[in-house]
Amino acid sequence: MRLCDRARDQGRFNVTTFAPTREQEVIEAVRWATAAGEPLEVIGTGTRRGLGRPVSVPHVLDLSALSGIVSYEPAELVLTAWAGTPLAEITSALAEHRQHLAFEPLSDVEGTLGGVVATGLSGPRRPKAGAVRDHVLGIAAVSGRGESFVGGGKVVKNVTGYDIPKLMTGSYGTLAVFTEITLKVLPAPEDVRTLIIHGVAAREAVRLTTTVLQSAAEVSGACHVPASVVADGTSQTAYRFEGVGPSVEFRLARVRDALGGSGPVTVLERDESVSFWRSIRDVTPFAGAAERMVWRISVPPAEGASVLERLERAIPGAHALLDWGGGLIWFQLPEADESMARDARAAVVRAALTGTQGHATLVRAPASVRETAQVFQPQAAGLAALSKRVKAQFDPRRVLNPGRMYADV
């Protein structure tokens, strides 16, 4: 294991970085942290460091050297890789066999497999293909006790009691350190085309989308980009069709005939479609204003337009993008005023969710804001108590990413 000291620009301490190259070295690093009572910040390449609350501890466990594809069986649709494996390496290997990760991980250029599973963020295909956790078949990991364990398996069908992989997915490295991850992969679609209806308001777009999603069209993506976000000032309501060519053409034509009277229509061919949905996946319209804070809000799809209207009334000057047929709202705040600089208007954003059973996560904000704001949806008392008990079981000394999700967990 490489061990080096380097200063982090925090003005408080130097950072000791552990960089294991095999699982045993991960175990040794965690056991040292547990024995010394010295917490670790667990990272891969650090591309998702800005998600969640900042972890201000004097030691880093850098998994980027724990890298490589362990096994890949295209015929079995199963791939196993070390947690630090670059996602680009995985997607490239899959592409050679015309396969892909159906959950569409966000920004797959610089991130690692471990980071994708730890944050659990899914792309536009989520309503059709399922979330990240639905594609994780098995994990090998090291708990905060310094003990290695496995969950799930390396086959698509396995029964192992408690679904440990689902519990660990989206835990932001607060329960265990991933060392190896097994994923279900799927054949990539032969053809991709996108139908865009222009000039439809958000509420009407959600209504139309509900009709499409409940039909036999089998769209693999449905989003609404409001006029304020589009360069020409005209809203876009888009539906993605994937599969074999004749099927794509037939389904697209049926939806086009059904919705053509709703506004002007454009059809994007394969390359344009891939580019369009990549921009939706990565929320590219909001990428150019990095100083503006962004919320990721999940609601029942039928409530999407109503929640957006309440948000826009409460926070004028904001911008939004609706994905998942209205079930996911990306909400970009206007330039920060005093209250935004303090808490990113967390109370106002969450008040708009009243009665919807939705939840909101602050996904982009300065570290100073993320230190004090409620980044993740506040938990009910019973769920908060359960979260603490789970944390205590896997990481009793709180040495793994302490406070990354909630201040006291």
How would you characterize the overall build of this protein?
This protein is an alpha+beta fold. The chain has three domains: 1-188 and 379-409, Uridine Diphospho-n-acetylenolpyruvylglucosamine Reductase, domain 3 (2-Layer Sandwich); 191-281, 2-Layer Sandwich (Alpha-Beta Plaits), CATH 3.30.70; 284-372, Alpha-Beta Plaits (2-Layer Sandwich). Helix content is 30%, strand content 25%. It is built from 13 helices and 19 strands. It has helices at residues 23-36, 87-95, 113-119, 126-129, 164-168, 202-213, 245-259, 270-281, 304-314, 338-343, 346-351, 367-372, 381-394, and strands spanning 2-7, 14-19, 41-43, 59-62, 69-73, 78-82, 99-100, 136-143, 148-152, 176-184, 186-187, 191-198, 221-225, 236-243, 265-268, 294-298, 319-323, 328-332, 359-364. The strands form five sheets. Strands 5-6-10-8-9 form a five-stranded antiparallel sheet. A hairpin with a 6-residue loop joins strand 1 and strand 2 (14-19). The longest helix is centred in the middle third of the chain and has 15 residues, at 245-259. It is globular and about 70 Å long. The model is unreliable at 2-13 (pLDDT under 50).
